[in-house]
Write a structure and sequence with these properties.
This protein is α/β, with parallel strands linked by helices. The protein has twelve helices and 13 strands. Helices cover 36% and strands 19% of the residues. 42% of the residues are buried. The chain binds flavin mononucleotide.
């Protein structure tokens, strides 16, 4: 049975990738993930603000991961976990020396500027690919959608022009014209598109009058939004496609593949159950394929994509009407 896939131009034995986050923080765990069969590892992001030295927002990179594997439900910000640019490069070098699987560095930023040149340093430090997370908070009333997209495309073009390694772009789900933008990124040279960013949860503490941020772990209910996004792009862009968000089981991987994904990234599932969960998911994929007489994921890939479905409205709003009848 062939689970092989090609993602970012690299042939991988199967599509199970460790997604960006704290799982790549410690060398011991990185080795455990490789031993458990991870096909690729994405490191946590280095943030534009860290490179430019601006006051840093307590975003995703600052969670404590002390609760990993202890059925942790969410992660609270812990500013001590932040890695500065120099430490990030050093960590990348050490991870590369510790494992043989491809290691992907992650850069998170939104504005055009000098931080982008850092991508080249990540390449020199040994990254096999770069995941570019262009995060836009969408609360700026002076920026229209066209300008937001124009800037993002500019960042991708600039990064691509300075690197030899492949570049994947991680997208947010909240885009006005998602498929059009994805096509633009494809044209700008993105080698991969990663769907979709999961936002941290904002709540209000009404007693302390504070904004409280947390990052609850996902479950499979977050997958359908990604299936729909990938299904809309599969076969229509040159870039390879990855799903991040809600991949927890073998069945999730099968669905992702049918939608058209070349790779599936796991974070919450591995934080909850530990690296050994990669083996479980892989076994589930193999069992399902054997039971349903599939011999390779390549032949399954995209068979439920928009392009291949006889009814192009299958993923669209028309379906709500049908469901409500
Ligand atoms: C604790 C934690 C830290 C994360 N840190 C990053 C990060 O540094 N950069 C990034 O692009 N995504 C980060 N993410 C998002 C994950 O890469 C992933 O996109 C998201 O969790 C959805 O996948 P999942 O359902 O498998 O958890 C983080 C997620 C978690 C739970």
């Amino acid at each position: 049975m062939d689970l092989g896939t090609t993602y970012l131009g690299m042939r991988l034995p199967h599509p199970l990738i460790v997604g960006a986050g704290p799982l790549g923080d410690e060398l011991d765990r990185v080795r455990q993930l490789e031993d458990a069969g991870a096909a690729m590892l994405v490191l946590r992001s280095l943030y534009e603000e860290e490179i430019t030295g601006e006051q840093i927002d307590t975003f995703l990179h600052t969670e404590s991961h002390n609760e990993s594997f202890a059925e942790a439900g969410s992660f609270a910000p812990d500013p001590l976990a932040a890695l500065g640019p120099e430490e990030y490069l050093e960590h990348l070098r050490r991870v590369k020396a510790a494992v043989r699987i491809p290691v992907v560095a992650s850069l998170n930023g939104v504005s055009p500027g000098g931080w982008i040149s850092y991508a080249r340093l990540l390449e020199v430090a040994g990254a096999d690919a770069l995941e570019l997370h262009i995060y836009h908070a969408a609360s700026d009333m002076t920026l229209d959608a066209a300008e937001v997209e124009r800037r993002a495309l500019g960042i991708v073009r600039e990064v691509k022009s300075s690197l030899r390694i492949p570049v994947a772009v991680k997208l947010a789900p909240l885009l006005t014209a998602f498929a059009h933008f994805a096509k633009g990124l494809d044209g700008a040279g993105a080698d991969g598109l990663v769907l979709f960013t999961r936002f941290h949860r904002i709540d209000i503490d009404v007693e302390e009058l504070e904004v409280v941020r947390s990052l609850p772990l996902s479950d499979s209910s977050e997958l359908p939004l990604r299936l729909r996004g990938v299904a809309a792009l599969a076969g229509r862009v040159r870039a390879s496609l990855a799903i991040t968000g809600g991949v927890h089981s073998g069945l999730d991987v099968i669905k992702a593949t049918m939608s058209g994904a070349h790779a599936t990234q796991l974070v919450s599932a591995l934080l909850r159950h530990g690296p050994g969960h990669l083996r479980t998911v892989r076994r589930e994929v193999e069992t399902w394929m054997a039971e349903h007489e599939w011999s390779s994921l390549d032949e399954m890939r995209g068979n439920m994509s928009l392009e291949r479905l006889p009814d192009p409205a299958a993923y669209e709003r028309a379906n709500f009407r049908m469901a409500l009848r």
